[in-house]
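Q: I'm teaching a short session on how sequence maps to structure, and I want students to see two examples side by side rather than one. Could you give me a first protein with its sequence written out and its structure tokens following it? Keep the formatting plain so it prints cleanly on a handout.
A: Of course. Example one:
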Amino acid sequence: MGQIKQIIWDWNGTLLDDVEMCVHVMNDLLSTYNLPAINSEKYKQIFDFPVKDYYLKLGFDFTLHPFEKVGHEFMDNYFKELINCSLHKDVLSSLSYFKKMGINQMVLSAMEHESLENSLTKKGIRDFFTRVQGIDNHLAAGKIELAAELLNSTNCNASETLIIGDTLHDLEIAEAIGSACILVSNGHFSKERLLKKYNLVFDSIEEIVNYLQAIVNKY
């Protein structure tokens, strides 16, 4: 922890508790296209990056219905429901703790950049972050390149950076830029799925804070 000078947070699923809403919105879309509905357990087993692969697992046929079409239909309804989503219960206290510790905090998200900025502001936590980086479209692509750009924009190097996310894609991003990573299992991937690939997985952000505090106290 003494070496960590900045944290790059994922947004959806990590800070924002939007899994149930994603399942609800997707089931409405699946119904429109006469495809089988899913539950939260199934969702956490098949959701993936690139998001296009996830849609294929759901049964969408892009020769009949292009990904860009169904993807935008999902996002249109997602943003209509976003107001009903809350932060995970331990987010505010955890962000406040890291701020008090003097750790620089940023957000990297697969959400379109302007929408991300608006979402963070409306949820009341934008001021915790020195930089926020979303993507330039609504189809959730390109986070690895943006992570490298985000890192290069700071005075910290990769060894001083911790990525906190909820998917194996967040782990891939950390590995790509050479930073540390901690995963939380109350987001878009199941704990079982995360643990198959990585062992630093916690049930909540509060547990992550406790883990990092224990390291500080040890030394």
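Q: Perfect. Now a second example for contrast.
A: Example two:
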Amino acid sequence: MRRAARLVAVLLLVAAAARADGGRVRVRQDAGPFSITVFTAPEPACAGPVDVSVLVQDPASGDAVLDAAVEVVLTSPERGPVLRANAEPGRNRLLHEAIVALPAPGTWRLDVVVRRGDASGTVSTVLPVEPPASRVLSIWPFLAVPPLAVALFALRGRLRRRRA
């Protein structure tokens, strides 16, 4: 029983600390001489910083194209600002990554332009963006750990008294 509880506790801590590459797949499409897959994180996308990651592949071989220039273009729902960012190699070297600060919620248009020499390809999709998440909601797991630890300690004491 104790081993199982420890294992669950360790798995929960590891899962909370894990950082996945990419996020949700928004679009995967062949464009020009490229196969382009666009990921966004967090899910759901909220106003504020959004990670846009792009995987560029050769459609024939499936090999990653690492030397392509990738540009991310976001157009606001009110036809206001157009946000442009050059995607740089990310933590996962197969992906090009751009962090874009979205100022407002709405349905944004997301275009990704890939260039390599004279060849280019563009994919487009919509990106639903929600209002910014509450700060408390984003840190609730950290706020829940101390009361949970106290409750487990009290439960341990109660079980020891019953045995004695």
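Q: What should students look for in example two?
A: Point them to this: Strands lie at 24-31, 34-41, 48-57, 69-75, 82-89, 95-102, 106-116, 119-129. Also worth mentioning: The chain has a mean pLDDT of 82.
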